UniProtKB/TrEMBL annotation:
CDD domains found in the cross-reference section: nitrilase_3 (cd07581)
Pfam families assigned to the protein according to its UniProt record, in alphabetical order: CN_hydrolase (PF00795)
Record keywords: Hydrolase
InterPro entries for the chain: C-N_Hydrolase (IPR003010), C-N_Hydrolase_sf (IPR036526), UPF0012_CS (IPR001110)
Protein name listed in UniProt: Hydrolase
GO molecular function: hydrolase activity
Keyword DNA-binding: no
Domain CN hydrolase: 1-248
Family note: Belongs to the carbon-nitrogen hydrolase superfamily. NIT1/NIT2 family.
Gene3D superfamilies membership: Carbon-nitrogen hydrolase
Amino acid sequence: MRIALAQILSGTDPAANLRLVDEYSRRAADAGATLVVFPEATMCRFGVPLGPVAEPVDGPWADGVRRVAADANITVVAGMFTPSGDGRVKNTLIAAGPTDSAESHAHYDKIHLYDAFGFTESRTVAPGHDPVVITVDGVRVGLTVCYDIRFPALYTELARRGAEVIAVCASWGSGPGKLDQWTLLARARALDSMSYVAAAGQADPGDAHGSASGAPTGVGGSLVVSPLGEVVASAGSQPQLVVADIDVDRVAQARKSIAVLSNHSNFAQVDRAESVG
């Protein structure tokens, strides 16, 4: 399976960002990829009010993503914002395949909200609750967003639901050690779930977006990781399309060799923030 990571630099104009989705999706398809993963907040970067740009998953922006997927003949996963009904938005991934098959069309609402490093995502974003797995050319692909990557139980749950590849769409906050954490977490989640991890982040904007809001606007470093934690392909800090070939048969081989999913045992826990499955 050939996959692509579209490490773009989103701005504040959803229409302009949709044009980036079109450009990078066509480039990925021309390179032979069947799946292209875009970052969190592809629709509109953080650091500006999100309510005015939020649209439902059957709205014009998501429909535009579906048209891109159909025209380019590729499955597209991209970050957007949808209304939550309580005055906040949801941090949503839209997945759109090249055909009308329901298996490749879905959306996922970010479960774990980024209330960390001085940023309070839950003030403006409502959480999701349901893990989501789609199918791309017969391969099961789990969907996660940014801060989700710090919660291993979500990744093992997606693996139990059949995911062989887990996409992480992020707009990773900058700061000392943050890029190292991103890389380490992607490799650790691949090992936890014995899955490929396809981690697409926003490119590093430098000083272009400023830092007064403390909003996470990207550090680059997108990467593909094997089920054994090996980095298969990676990006630098600037906008880039990363294309990688993955051998999905290695997932079953890894899970047989290191059977952490089947060897898992329930145990007493002080709290139940992470389900024991």
